[in-house]
Amino acid sequence: MSRKPFKREMPNDWFTKNSYYRRYMVREFSCVLIGLYVINLMAGIVALASSPIHWGLWVASQYNPVMILVAIASLVAGIWHTVTWFQTMPKVIKILQGDHFMPAKTIITGCYILLAAVSLALLLLVAIFA
């Protein structure tokens, strides 16, 4: 005797009904934009390694309005990803201070300070070796 498996019907627009799910889907879709930008950067590395002519062609292609839009969209998606991840950090990491947990605002502020410090360190490294 076999039983029919339960299959819940899910409409294709399930995420449009709730603003929480819409934000979730935008966050998940942002990885596609970031992935496209990463593929573009990898193509630039391949062009740099192959010849100066290919490198010049790749650099020239970056002035295309489509590539500029992809870069801007990737930047916005990366910022959105960072902000939403930092907002979830207090829910993911519970730091005990004596009898109570560290306030969420302190954890989020620490994340932004760490982001600024790492970004500054990378900029200094680029400035030193450029």
Give the count of helical stretches. Answer: 4
Point out poorly predicted stretches: none
Number of strands: 2
What is the chain-wise order of helices and strands?
HHHEEH
Shape: flat
Q: According to CATH, what is the class?
A: Mainly Alpha
Q: In percent, how much strand structure appears in the residues?
A: under 5%
Find the structural class using helix and strand composition. Answer: mainly alpha
CATH topology: 3 helical TM bundles of succinate and fumarate reductases
CATH architectural category: Up-down Bundle
Rg from C-alpha positions?
22 Å
Biggest β-sheet description = 2 strands, antiparallel
- CATH superfamily descriptor: Fumarate reductase/succinate dehydrogenase, transmembrane subunit
Mean pLDDT across the residues is 91
InterPro entries: Fumarate_red_C, SQR/QFR_C/D
Organism: Saezia sanguinis
Protein name: Fumarate reductase subunit C
Pfam families: Fumarate_red_C
Keywords:
130 residues, mainly alpha, 3 helical TM bundles of succinate and fumarate reductases, two-stranded antiparallel sheet, 4 helices, 2 strands, transmembrane helix, transmembrane, Fumarate_red_C, SQR/QFR_C/D, membrane
Explain what this protein looks like in three dimensions:
- InterPro entries: Fumarate_red_C, SQR/QFR_C/D.
- The chain crosses the membrane at residues 29-53, 65-86, 107-129.
- Helices cover 74% and strands 3% of the residues.
- The protein is mainly alpha-helical and 130 residues long.
- A two-stranded antiparallel sheet has the order 1-2.
- Helix 1 (19-50) runs antiparallel to helix 2, helix 1 (19-50) crosses helix 3 and helix 3 (65-92) packs across helix 4.
- 2% of the residues are buried.
